[in-house]
UniProtKB/TrEMBL annotation:
Domain Ionotropic glutamate receptor C-terminal, residue spans: 433-834
UniProt name for this protein: Ionotropic receptor 8
Transmembrane intervals: 553-579, 637-658, 859-881
A Pfam family hit: Lig_chan-Glu_bd
SMART domains the record matches: Lig_chan-Glu_bd, PBPe
Localisation: Cell membrane
Similarity comment text for this entry: Belongs to the glutamate-gated ion channel (TC 1.A.10.1) family.
Length: 940
């Protein structure tokens, strides 16, 4: 019934009686009488049993001086909060009418709208409340904005089931785990932890309730499809076993997976696993509390499970009773508080309790706990501080074979794990293995057969890059080549191929290679920051080979000219010999006339040949014939030789220069304006996409211009502005794209390079258009290829990952760090300048260089041949003189003896003459003899 109908005198009487009955003496001990309103959730049986044990414990131990006079229990059933509030109000009104209003509200509802209804009820009516509900800061919405006085008597203490999941955060932080799949059953409540559990931690995670046993397999494969490899199970031991059994059947154990089992239950871990290692986390009571806990179990029947939850609710109720008694003993219990029923509740006149600091007295309770120490701070930060032990359990053939204690965790919201051996826990984490799709392309990614048949390995610039990133981020990887060995392009239907397709369909985590950043690719994948400079498209062509020949100087004149010169030489020589022989004025026919001349040259056939040969040189032919006819022949030969030598010299210089000026293609424009050289990019490459789109854009521009020109609605003035003589839109790329299709696009780089090599020359054949890095490497490793023109359509290279992947941020940080350390520049140096495949090619002649030895070397050969012939001739002359004419040799020897005899006779005669002359000089004494001295000519 409504208290508005009760007279004020009755209210005063009831209040005085309640104060009088508040306490009385029992054996000299002040016994405080308490009235408790107990509110619980329908399924929280552990709390019911634990509170009953607490009531029994207080009743059987009068030394505590607590007497529970009125104990009113309300169970939250159903899902209608208004109906539940009406039930609460009805029970509350009954207590007031009975003269035993509740001193305290003990709330063990867990969470949800029913629990929020209790918070609304207690805060509105200012009822001192101790709640064991789940939730951290702000999670209990109705107690979110309590003022300072309300915080003193509206107290929330988190149960163990709300604190134990925080160990996941500690494990992830310690092991630097980047992904987590969290499964929990109904022994844990995660309504408020979906966002807060791993908040501000860069870990990709999924939190999901465990469904039935048939759905566990689907949930595990869903996690696996999302590349989750670190699994956390929170639940009863029975639930953990069910999930582990399913994981074993579906082969979710191994170095790629890590399993963590977290429970409130006691007992060992069991599963039908063939070979599994599991990190098992379970709470243990404090050593000082074990005796009390054992006594409560055996004497008072505190046997509800989980043990830690039963102990928590027992301690929560018992310590609340103790705090209330202490507050009553101290006289700080409010004596003038007037209870307001739900019907009398008025928002304009709210009930108020001042200086009712129940929290302080709850914090000061000194009674030992039955499991762990209670920490009473603000709401959301008050809890039972227990210890959880971490064990590494190894199970083989369904039997636990070892259990290694690796550390402990003190229950708290931000408590770290204390480990015995950091390496043992670090090694337990799952090895993060990413699948990398790539494209074989030198020098970025190259296949390398490992020694001893150990499988396929890869090397290259990108492999070294991912290794450097791996050292910074921490992961393992498996590389496979895209099925079509292409980077990825979108067809007319919006379908992708290559590496991009592998990322979209989740078959790969990372796309590694010389992958260009393109707008359409960014719509379906995420790119990291570029790891390589802007790279454009350029042209690969066959290197022009300047024709060289050691006897190239002989090719200046045609063979017929050389033969005519040779014929003229012999004809002139023979003619001069005939003229000199038959002319009466020649030397050989007038020897007496020219006997006093110093130059006495007889022009026989040998001398004529020598004269005509030396006349063609700057040295000259020597003495000319004496007869006038011979001299006319010689003069004619000199004029002929001068003209021939001058013509040969001029043509030789021009011939050698022109042969080095053959550079027909120098840019893309040059390529587009000629027809002898075919050209095309790779089929399906980024270069092909570029030219195809440029041609398409030109076509669209043309259609726009045509529509403008043929628009009938234009005025004469506007139409005149469109009247032009030259086509205003370029069709350069349209023509080039048409030429490429006619040339047939190569399907592989090897095919393109072979077509370039098969070209007849640099001015006729095939030109390949592709990425500058590809072409630069081909030129570096092949001496018969060249890169032509500047780069165009430049784009950076980057690593691609799946859309939304956390790898993007991790790789960005790693690449930027490598850039700062100049590691990427070192990689370029290794794979470009220091590449062992780099060829040292001969320097190509150009128009600024001199004439090479390859073209003029024949002159030196002529010298060596001439010297060799001279040596042979000398040997022949010596042989002929000594062995082929012995009579001549004997005559020469006899002649030499006669000459030696005559010389000796002359010396003897001279000696006698000198003696005579000396005697004549001595006889005169005053002057020399008039006899002349002996001359050296006498000896000749």
């Amino acid at each position: 019934m409504s208290l508005r109908r009760v007279s004020s005198s009755l209210r005063i009487f009831i209040f005085l009686m309640s104060v009088f009955n508040r306490h009385h003496l029992v054996h000299g001990q002040i016994v405080q009488v308490l009235n408790i309103l107990y509110i619980n959730s329908e399924g929280n049986i552990v709390a019911d049993r634990a509170v009953d044990v607490a009531l029994n414990f207080v009743r059987r131990n009068p030394r505590f001086g607590i007497h529970i006079d009125g104990f009113y229990k309300v169970v939250a059933t159903g899902t209608d909060p208004q109906e539940f509030l009406d039930m609460l109000c009805a029970k509350f009104n009954e207590t007031i009418v009975a003269g035993k209003p509740p001193d305290l509200v003990l709330d063990t509802t867990t969470s949800g709208v029913m629990s929020e209804a209790v918070k609304t009820f207690t805060s509105a009516l200012a009822l001192p409340t101790v709640s064991g509900s789940y939730g951290q800061d702000g999670d209990v919405r109705q107690w979110r904005n309590l003022d300072g006085e309300q915080m003193k008597y509206l107290i929330q203490v988190n149960p163990p089931g709300d604190i134990l999941p925080e160990v996941i955060r500690a494990i992830i932080l310690m092991q630097n785990i980047t992904d987590a799949g969290i499964l929990f059953d109904d022994s844990f409540i995660f309504d408020h932890k979906y966002k807060s559990l791993l908040q501000n931690i860069p870990t990709r995670h999924i939190i999901a309730p465990v469904e039935d046993s048939r759905s566990v397999k689907r949930q595990l494969f869903r996690f696996k499809d999302l590349d989750i490899v670190n699994y956390f199970i929170l639940g009863r031991l029975q639930t953990i076993k069910m999930i582990l059994d399913s994981a074993n059947v579906n082969k979710f154990f191994g170095r790629k997976f890590a399993w963590h089992a977290i429970t409130l239950d006691k007992g060992g871990l069991k599963c039908a696993c063939s070979n599994a290692s599991i990190l098992y986390v379970k709470p243990e009571p404090d050593p000082t509390a074990k005796e009390k806990l054992s006594n409560l179990k055996t004497t008072y029947g505190l046997t509800a499970e989980p043990e830690i939850s039963a102990a928590f609710y027992f301690d929560l109720a018992f310590r609340t009773f103790i705090a209330a008694k202490a507050m009553l003993d101290a006289g700080e219990w409010s004596k003038n508080f007037t209870y307001v029923t739900c019907e009398e509740y008025n928002e304009d006149n709210l009930p108020n309790r001042k200086n009712f600091d129940l929290r302080r007295y709850l914090k000061q309770v000194s009674e030992p706990t039955s499991y762990g120490t209670f920490v009473i701070e603000t709401n959301g930060h008050s809890f039972e501080e227990f210890t959880a032990h971490l064990e590494k359990v190894s199970i083989i053939n369904s039997q636990p074979v070892s259990s290694e204690a690796v550390g402990t965790w003190k229950a708290n919201l931000n408590s770290p794990i204390m480990v015995k051996d950091a390496a043992s826990l670090a090694n337990f984490s799952a090895v993060t293995v990413y699948k990398i799709v790539t494209v074989l392309q030198e020098p970025f990614v190259m296949r390398e057969e490992s020694e001893g048949g150990g499988g396929v390995k890869y090397k290259g610039y990108c492999i070294d890059l991912i290794e450097e990133i791996r050292k910074l981020v921490g992961f393992e990887y498996e590389i496979f080549v895209a099925p079509d060995n292409s980077f990825g392009n979108m067809d007319e239907n919006g379908q992708w191929n290559g590496m991009i397709k592998e990322l979209i369909e989740k078959r790969a985590d990372i796309a590694l290679g010389s992958l260009s950043v393109m707008a359409e690719r960014e719509n379906v994948v995420d790119f990291t920051v570029p790891y390589y400079d802007l790279v454009g498209i350029t042209i690969l062509m066959k290197k022009p080979k300047t024709p060289t020949s050691l006897f190239k100087f002989l090719t200046v004149l045609e063979t017929g000219v050389w033969l005519c010169i040779l014929a003229a030489y012999f004809f002139t020589s023979v003619l001069m010999w005939l003229f000199d022989r038959w002319s009466p004025y020649s030397y050989q026919n007038n020897r007496e006339k020219y006997k006093d001349d110093e130059e006495k040259r007889e022009f026989n056939l040998k001398e004529c040949l020598w004269f005509c040969m030396t006349s063609l040189t700057p040295q000259g032919g020597g003495e000319a014939p004496k007869n006038l006819s011979g001299r006319l022949v010689a003069a004619t030969w000199w004029l002929f030789g001068f003209i021939i030598i001058a013509s040969y010299t001029a043509n030789l210089a021009a011939f050698l220069t022109v042969s080095r000026l053959d550079t027909p293609i120098e840019s893309l424009d040059d390529l587009s304006k000629q027809y002898k050289i075919q050209y095309a990019p790779l089929n399906g490459s980024a270069a092909m996409t570029y030219f195809q789109r440029m041609a398409d854009i030109e076509g669209r521009f043309y259609e726009i211009w045509k529509d403008m020109s043929l628009n009938d609605s234009l005025s004469d003035v506007e139409r005149a502005k469109l009247a032009v003589w030259d086509y205003p839109v370029s069709d350069k790329y349209t023509k080039m794209w048409q030429a490429m299709k006619e040339a047939k696009l190569p399907n592989s780089l090897e095919e393109a390079v072979q077509r370039v090599r098969d070209s007849k020359s640099s001015s006729e054949g095939f030109g390949y258009l592709g990425d500058a890095t590809d072409i630069r490497y081909l030129v570096m490793t092949n001496c018969d290829l060249q890169m032509v023109g500047d780069e165009f359509s430049r784009k950076p290279y980057a690593i691609a990952v799946q859309q939304g992947s956390p790898l993007k941020d991790q790789f960005n940080n790693a690449i930027l760090l490598l850039l700062n350390k100049r590691k990427l520049e070192k990689l370029k140096e290794i794979w470009w300048n220091q590449n062992p495949e780099k060829k040292k090619c001969d320097k190509q002649d150009n128009q600024t260089d001199g004439i090479s030895i390859h073209n003029i070397g024949g002159v030196f050969i002529v010298i060596f041949v001439g010297i060799a012939l001279a040596c042979v001739t000398l040997a022949f002359e010596y042989w002929w003189y000594k062995y082929r004419n012995p009579q001549l040799n004997e005559f020469a020897a006899n002649k030499q003896n006669i000459e030696e005899f005559n010389r000796k006779m002359k010396i003897a005669a001279i000696t006698d003459y000198e003696n005579v002359r000396n005697r004549h000089y001595q006889s005169n004494f005053t002057k020399k003899s008039s006899l002349p001295p002996v001359s050296d000519q006498w000896l000749q």
